[in-house]
Every structure is written in C-alpha cells, then in structure tokens.
Amino acid sequence: MFDPLLAEIQNQGRQFTVYEGDEESGIPSQFETHAVSVRQEELPPGGPAPFVVIEQDGEFAGALPVDELQKLIEPPIVRPGERTDVSEGFGVLFEVLDDTVFTAMNRKQLLAVSREIEDRATRVRTGTLRASFQNRSRLEPQIELYRYLASHTDLDIHIYGIEPADASPIPGVTYHRGAQLDRYWSLAFDGGDHESQSCALVARETPNGYDGFWTYDPALVDEILSTLADCDDSSR
C-alpha cells in the first residue's frame, strides 16, 4: 500500500558531513540505518564541539551538535504531557531527519518517533490523527496513551488494523480493519488549524526491523492521511 511512496522518498539525495576531532563519535556507523551519504572532516585542536552539517540535493539543510545526534541510539519514549529536555533534543533530531529513509530501525526507536507526532497532536488539541498498529497485540501497550489523547483533546482519532469487535472501546476513537496494513506501522496528524504542525511516520516491517521515513511536508502528510482514510470500513 505504501510501497510506491517509500520508493519515491528513497530517491531523495541527502549528505551528512561529520566534523569531529581526534575522538571519533561513531556517528557514521549510526547512520548506516538511514539512506544518507556520510563523510567525515577533522576539526582543528581547540575548535568547536563536534557537529554535523546536513545537505539536501547540494543545498544546506541544517546543522546539529553531535551530542544531539547521539540521542538517536537511545531515544526517549515520553508520553505527551511528560516532555523533558531530552525529548526536546530528540525533537530537533526528528526535524533534521525529516523525509530521510531509514532501514532496520527497532520498535523502541519508532516509538520515540511516534511520541513526537502524538505530542504535536496533543499540543495542537484539534485535527485528525490516524494510526495503524498492524494487529491488536501491538496496540494494547498503547491503549492508555490513546485514552489520554481522546480525553484530553478534541482530536478525531482513527486506529487501523484492528477488528472493531476485538478492540477496547474508547470514546472519541474509531477503529478500522484496515485491509493491507498488516505490514505497516503508520501515524499521521494533519496539524488541525496549524498546517505547519502536520507530521507523519510510515514504517514497513522487514525481517531486520522496519524501513520507512517520517515527514513534516504537509502535502506528503495529506497523501498518507488519504491512503489511510481509504481504509475506512468500520465504525466505533
């Protein structure tokens, strides 16, 4: 279902340049799970702290201290309403890697990415949030979080890949069977009244973990939301 979109994002060119001193950060190996080209440059003695410069199609796209990038290895999994400085640091990383394809990411890393999206939806408080969980066992650990979202916001929440008759009823949440979504972990928020807050994640399960991407591009988020909405086939 999302395979053509994944192939399209895969073709985008992004370059990371790591500037560091004698003590190597290990950043290049960290990005073996992302479809980016990484090169290293040495900083002179007494120079600034190690940092990374990101280019998109040859144009400057951003920069970030290596210390922030290190948080990708052990990302925080913070529920909305419980943000910490570490979570905000991961939020910066989340923005830097916008529209970058990842490969072989694990569930903990994807949960951290999902929390960033859910946190945005919680702060905006209105709009549509659509999520696919592959099966009921993947949803159950998140049930209390979605109860929180439904009770503390005015979000229109849709959950896919779950038989409505088997799901835990949550006022304000609509369940959908979501045919053809059993391979995908996806989450999309339309931004409510603030298009700039729109964001989404699409991940495809593989034998080695998950491949996919996350995005802040409103047009791309709309495409993901529309794909999920086409699966609407059930009621609360």
Please give the count of helices.
Answer: 8
Number of strands: 11
Low-confidence stretches are: 75-79, 83-89
Number of domains: 1
SS class: alpha/beta
Shape designation: elongated
What is the H/E order?
A: HEHEEEHHEHEHHEEEEEH
Gyration radius, rounded: 18 Å
Please write the CATH class name.
Alpha Beta
Strand order of the largest sheet: 5-11-10-9-6-7-8
- Distance between the first and last residues' Cα: 24 Å
Rounded mean pLDDT is: 79
- Biggest sheet overview: 7 strands, mixed
List the keywords.
11 strands, 31% helix, 236 residues, 4-stranded mixed sheet, Endonuclease, Chain A, alpha/beta, single chain
Question: What's this entry about, in short?
Answer:
The protein is built from eight helices and eleven strands. It is an alpha/beta fold and 236 residues long.
Characterise the protein shown here.
This protein has one domain: Endonuclease, Chain A (2-Layer Sandwich), CATH 3.30.870. Helices cover 31% and strands 28% of the residues. It contains 8 helices and 11 strands. The protein has helices spanning 3-10, 27-30, 66-69, 85-96, 107-124, 136-139, 143-152, 218-229, and strands at 14-20, 37-42, 51-56, 59-65, 102-105, 128-132, 156-160, 173-176, 184-189, 199-206, 209-215. A 7-stranded mixed β-sheet has the order 5-11-10-9-6-7-8, sandwiched between helices. A 4-stranded mixed β-sheet has the order 2-1-3-4. α2 links the parallel β1 (14-20) and β2 (37-42).
How is this fold's topology laid out?
Layout: H1 3-10, E1 14-20, H2 27-30, E2 37-42, E3 51-56, E4 59-65, H3 66-69, H4 85-96, E5 102-105, H5 107-124, E6 128-132, H6 136-139, H7 143-152, E7 156-160, E8 173-176, E9 184-189, E10 199-206, E11 209-215, H8 218-229
Parallel strand pairs: 1-2, 6-7, 7-8
Antiparallel strand pairs: 1-3, 3-4, 5-11, 6-9, 9-10, 10-11
